[in-house]
Specification:
Largest interface: A-B, 26 and 27 residues
Largest sheet of chain A: 6 strands, mixed
Strand content of chain B: over 45%
Structural class of chain A: mainly beta
Shape of chain B: globular
Order of helices and strands of chain B: EEEEEEEEEEE
Order of helices and strands of chain A: EEEEEEEEEEEE
Distance between the termini of chain A: 41 Å
Helix content of chain A: under 10%
Number of strands of chain A: 12
Number of helices of chain A: 0
Shape of chain A: globular
Largest sheet of chain B: 7 strands, mixed
Oligomer: heterodimer
Radius of gyration of chain B: 14 Å
Distance between the termini of chain B: 37 Å
Strand content of chain A: over 45%
Chain lengths: ~120, ~120
């Protein structure tokens, strides 16, 4: 079974500061994708950033970037210049091929609070 | 472009009652997913459809849960009879139908919060 571990149930950061959310996963798959999803209090799950496992270069998306360490099976999310709107639950979700299509496996999430 | 629609947004029922949730995916998306998200946890996949066929329902408690996707568009998830532990948010997501091995982003609906008393 695939497992995903987000070791920080809750975190807080001052507005404009930088914060890093950690994620480790366990898989025997060789080809997969990794995602960070954001779920604000309104509950709509939104994709933040995506990383293909076969790419060595870390993905970036504006203020969001990842540190992908394939050998260590680690996939952390860095949020720079934190904004109040970043307050949300953040889920790490590897995506593995199953039954002919890719499926997401979610971690338990990290609750991030951005403090004014 | 309209997103994934779900209804109702909230539902409160007594245990042993029945309940149904509806999902309308993004137009043109062939793959539809139902997730269960218990408070304090990440979403767990219940069932995956591709068009109107089931791709994976290995985590669906089939003794009480059922789902269908008639005509390959809308989908309904039903619980009968409900138990206290079914209290959760039920999320629907959809994605384009890509080639096998290719990834297509999943887009999520707002979810239905179910409370079983």
């Amino acid at each position: 079974a695939q497992t995903v571990t987000q070791s920080q149930p809750e975190m807080s950061v001052q507005e404009a500061e930088t914060v890093t959310l950690s994620c480790t996963y366990d898989t025997s798959e060789s080809n997969y994708y990794l995602f960070w999803y954001k779920q604000p209090p309104s509950r709509q799950m939104i994709l933040v950033i995506r990383q293909e496992a076969y790419k060595q270069q870390n993905a970036t998306e504006n203020r969001f970037s990842v540190n992908f360490q394939k050998a260590a099976k680690s996939f952390s999310l860095k949020i720079s210049d934190s904004q109040l709107g970043d307050t949300a639950m953040y889920f790490c979700a590897p995506s593995y091929s199953g039954a002919g299509s890719y499926q997401l496996t979610f971690g338990k999430g990290t609750k991030l609070s951005v403090i004014p | 472009e309209a997103g994934v629609a779900q209804s109702p947004r909230y539902k409160i029922i007594e245990k042993r009652q029945s309940v149904a949730f509806w999902c309308n995916p993004i137009s043109g998306h062939a793959t539809l997913y139902w997730y269960q998200q218990i408070l304090g946890q990440g979403p767990k996949l219940l069932i995956q459809f591709q068009n109107n066929g089931v791709v994976d329902d290995s985590q669906l408690p089939k003794d009480r849960f059922s789902a269908e996707r008639l005509k390959g568009v809308d989908s309904t998830l039903k619980i009968q009879p409900a138990k206290l532990e079914d209290s959760a948010v039920y999320l629907c997501a959809s994605s384009l139908d890509g080639e096998t091995g290719a990834y297509n982003e999943q887009f999520f609906g707002p979810g239905t919060r179910l409370t079983v008393l």
